[in-house]
Design goal:
The structure is a single chain. With 233 residues, the chain is α/β, with parallel strands linked by helices. It has one domain (3-232): Class I glutamine amidotransferase (GATase) domain (Rossmann fold). It is 33% helix and 17% strand. It is built from 9 helices and 11 strands. The protein has a 5-stranded parallel β-sheet with strand order 5-4-1-6-7, sandwiched between helices. A two-stranded antiparallel sheet has the order 2-3. The chain has a two-stranded parallel ribbon with strand order 8-9. Strand 10 and strand 11 (211-214) form a beta hairpin. Helix 1 (28-40) packs across helix 3 and helix 1 packs parallel to helix 9 (220-232). It is globular and about 40 Å long.
């Protein structure tokens, strides 16, 4: 069985274009579904955050209309409660030794745009994981964390790699809209990533060697299943 490092944002707000603070955190479906699928397959999942701070769930993601139904919202809430001990005592990201893990999984929510995108410890972990060919699996806004992976010369490690991410269309139509401080799709494209988008709000997973990415919350379970397939290879 594999050891999986799940890197989760510790941010609870995002500074918007107009300077206001937008409450955020991790998106419930993304953390819950990926954690559940990997755990039920028998793998060990260790949650890590910047500073070892307990991550904050984006409350919007627990609303029935966001979760998909009252039943799904209740299930997400129940699972978060079930793993509360893990969430309350996460590994300090700076202390993570990638040699101890087989994969890095990065769920989203807008939180990664506030911290993981600029986290040097995450950058170090991702570069080492990529050099070793270990699975790296960010999804929705999680790929914002890939931006932390730059060489000493400032080169983006994932330039030229195929991936997907929460699209500009989805951000404008159902995300934080015109007030979004920056758009993940645009920035990743400008850094040299080859972004391949599917239809909005439908599951879409892209694999480029050891890099597995998902477009949106709807992709959460499929990303986790793709990680399982890759681990079995």
């Amino acid at each position: 069985m594999a050891n999986i490092l799940m890197v989760v944002s510790a941010a609870d707000s995002l500074t918007m274009k107009d300077g206001s603070e937008h409450p955020t955190g991790y998106w419930a479906e993304e953390l819950v579904e990926s954690h559940r699928v990997l755990r039920e397959a028998g793998h060990t999942v260790r949650i890590a955050t910047p500073g070892g701070t307990k991550p904050t769930v984006d409350q919007v993601s627990l609303a029935p209309e966001s979760a998909g139904s009252p039943e799904k919202a209740a299930a997400f809430t129940q699972y978060i409660s079930f793993i509360d001990a893990e969430l309350s005592s996460p590994l300090v990201l700076a202390d993570a030794d990638i040699s101890e893990y087989d994969a890095v999984v990065m769920p989203g929510g807008h939180g990664p745009m506030a911290d993981l995108a600029f986290d040097k410890d995450l950058g170090r972990i991702l570069i080492a994981a990529d050099n070793d060919g270990k699975i790296i699996a960010p999804f929705c806004h999680g790929p914002a964390g890939l931006l932390s992976a730059e060489t000493e010369n400032g080169d983006f490690v994932f330039a030229g790699r195929k991936l997907t991410v929460f699209t500009d269309e989805e951000e404008l139509g159902g995300g934080t809209g015109e007030n979004t401080p920056w758009f993940c799709e645009d920035v990743l494209r400008n850094k040299g990533a080859v972004v391949e988008s599917g239809p909005a709000w439908t599951s879409h997973v892209v694999r480029d060697r050891n890099l597995i990415s998902g477009q949106n919350p709807q992709s959460s379970e499929d990303v986790a299943k793709a990680v399982l397939s890759a681990l079995a290879e």
